[in-house]
Each structure stands twice: as C-alpha cells, then as structure tokens.
Design goal:
Helices cover about 35% and strands about 20% of the residues. By secondary structure, the chain is of the alpha/beta class. The two termini are about 15 Å apart.
Length: about 350
C-alpha cells in the first residue's frame, strides 16, 4: 500500500511529503519532497499561533492549508493515482496539556485529492489521558531499537524531542519527551537580525560569529520545565514570540543571542537526556532541520561526549523526511485499525487508534 505522509512543523519552514510503500511491518520510502509555504501564508500562520488569534482567520487557514497540502501531494514526485492513503499531521496552531489544534482539514484534503485521509492524530491520545505528543517514538522504536545498544533518537525541528530506547527495550521501556526549543528561537533571532531576509541560521554560520552568554543560559535552565519529569511537551506557547522578546530585552547583541540560543538548545537536550535516561546510552541519532546546523551539532557532541553522534542518514532515513514518514506509517496503522501511540511516551492510559478518517 502506498501512503503519502504529510508534515509541517512548528518552524513553518514548509510542507514535507513522503511517499512510502508499506507491506505489513516493512516499509520503503519511494520519494520525499519539501514545499515552502508561500510567504504570506507563513506570516499568517505565525500570526495565529498564539492565544489571541481570531477564530475567523484560523477557520480560513484551515481550508487554505489543506489546499496547499493537496497541491504538495500532487507534486510529490509519484503519480497521484498510485497513492492509496494520506496521513496528514496538520499545522499545529495551539498545543497544551489537555487540548490541541492542528489545521489543514482532512475532509478538504480528501476532496481535493480524491484519496482517503487520516488526520487529527493527537486528539484521541489526549482524550485517553495523554499529552498527544510525542507520536514519532512509535516509528523511532521500530527503526532504531537494538538488542544491546542504548539509543536516543533526537529530532530537532521547531521544538526538540527525544526518544530514549534502552538496549533490548520493549515498547513500555521507551521514554520520550520534548526537551525544549529546537530551531524555533534561533530562527526568530536570525529573522530579527536579517530583517526577514533569512529565516534560519544556514549551517550555523551566524552562531559561530557570536559569543555565548553562559550567565543567560544558566538562568534559563533554572526554569521548572527542565526538571519536570516526562511525559511533557513544549511548543510555540513556551518558546514563541514572548520568549524571544524576553531575550531581546536583555540587551545582549543579536549575534551573541543567536550563539547563546544555539548553545542553550543543545544544553536543554543534554540536560533532558542526562536527567531522564533510565539506562546507559551509546548512540545519539539526529534528524530534523537542526541536523544541518554544524554549530548546534558541535555543541551536542561537546555536551554528550560519551555518546556516538550520528544522523538518521546513517540508518537510511533522510534527515528531513523522518516525521513525514512517521505520519505515513501512523496512517497505515489507523487504516488497519491498530493502535499506534506509545503510552510510555505520551502518558496515555492505554494504546489507542489515532486520527480521523476522511473518505
């Protein structure tokens, strides 16, 4: 069965589409492409990603984003007629404990493509007492479990999240949680420095030009979130506009803030792993946009010297494709009426079948 997985993350850098052929427990990635959001749509999505957003604009974007998803499926590099199912994460507008909202309506997407769609994956897990996230650990466990080596799958998107898989782990042994910011804070500071000409720190070059403010990092790390035991999630509510404004108000020059945010992101990841890993770990396997940032990767290597640093490419998975692949796999499990959350990761009371199906 060929399934198209769609993912557009908190960084709002684009729509990832992965076409995946799935047979039983095996899958093969056929194609992966990324399509940037039109600049005007990206700005509007940023504007509604806060608690004061107007419901009318959210409703309009719910339809417009679904149309963009449909176009992306049509241009993903495989004939649309070969795709039997779409799994769409949607664009997260709001996420907190007890509620979540992803837009890009599944029914609109199904109508525009003529293909059944599984969407709204997070709500059922939340209804079962979970956080609705992270959901990618289901795929991480299937990809990276090893009989002897303890591994951490780290995805650095807008938010950074880890899946900790001890050697020989069963599904109930997996620990997964959001560690804090990924690229989100860095991206916002880069946009501020360049007056919108750049939206991310290409290869970490800007971070290399600044000086890290250790005092600010120490102060930020004292916040309760980093001591809170998993399961736990984070989002634009914690690390969006207000957080960035707080950093700007310190008066620290922007190049130094970019360097500091980069080191801080790596520090929160290292703190989370050290504080909550249940066993010895051997490998750190990085995916997501942050894996392209050599400054960030350098800090990870320095902060976690006891672990071998890899990217998901070393295991045959494109750095930028893993989450889109995941939602293809999750959609397939839903289509087969099988649960695909990991309660040990989300905190749900029991496994559940995720998502809603639009025929």
């Amino acid at each position: 069965m060929r399934v198209a997985g769609l993912m557009s993350g908190t960084s709002l850098d684009g729509i990832d589409v992965a076409a995946v052929d799935i047979t039983g427990s095996r899958f093969r990635v056929v194609q992966h492409r990324t399509f940037a959001y039109p600049q005007g749509v990206r700005e509007r999505l940023l504007a509604v990603s806060n608690a004061e957003a107007h419901v009318a604009e959210i409703s309009r974007l719910n339809f417009e984003v679904a149309v963009l998803y449909a176009r992306a499926v049509g241009r993903c590099g495989v004939p649309k007629k070969t795709i039997s199912l779409i799994g769409s994460h949607g664009q997260t507008i709001f996420h907190e404990r007890g509620s979540t909202l992803q837009i890009g309506d599944g029914s609109v997407l199904a109508e525009r493509t003529g293909i059944p769609v599984v969407s709204d994956f997070r709500t059922r897990d939340i209804a079962a007492g979970g956080r609705g996230a992270p959901l990618v650990p289901y795929l991480d466990y299937r990809l990276f479990r090893h009989a002897r080596r303890g591994r951490v799958a780290l995805n650095i998107g807008g938010i950074a999240n880890v899946t900790i898989i001890p050697g020989g782990a069963g599904p109930d042994d997996v620990v997964a949680f959001d560690t804090g910011p990924g690229n989100m804070v860095i991206d916002a500071l880069v946009a501020k420095l360049t007056r919108g000409a750049e939206t991310f720190d290409r290869n970490g070059a800007l971070a290399q030009q600044g000086q890290v403010n250790q005092r600010l990092i120490s102060r930020l790390l004292r916040r309760p979130f980093y001591r809170e035991a998993p399961p736990k999630t984070a989002g634009r509510e914690q690390y969006g506009r207000e957080f960035v404004e707080e950093l700007l108000q310190t008066g620290i020059p922007l190049p130094d803030l970019i360097a500091t945010a980069t080191a801080f992101t790596a520090a929160t990841i290292a703190v989370g792993i050290r504080r909550f890993a249940p066993a010895r770990l051997d490998d750190l396997i990085v995916s997501g946009g942050g894996a392209h940032n050599s400054s960030l990767m350098g800090y990870l290597k320095a902060f976690l010297p006891e672990m071998e640093l890899h990217t998901s490419i070393d295991f045959g998975i494109d750095i930028d494709a893993k989450e889109a692949i995941c939602f293809a796999v999750l959609a397939y499990e839903t289509w087969r009426r099988r649960p695909s959350n990991l309660p040990s990761a989300t905190g749900a009371r029991h496994p559940v079948i995720l998502g809603k199906v639009s025929y």
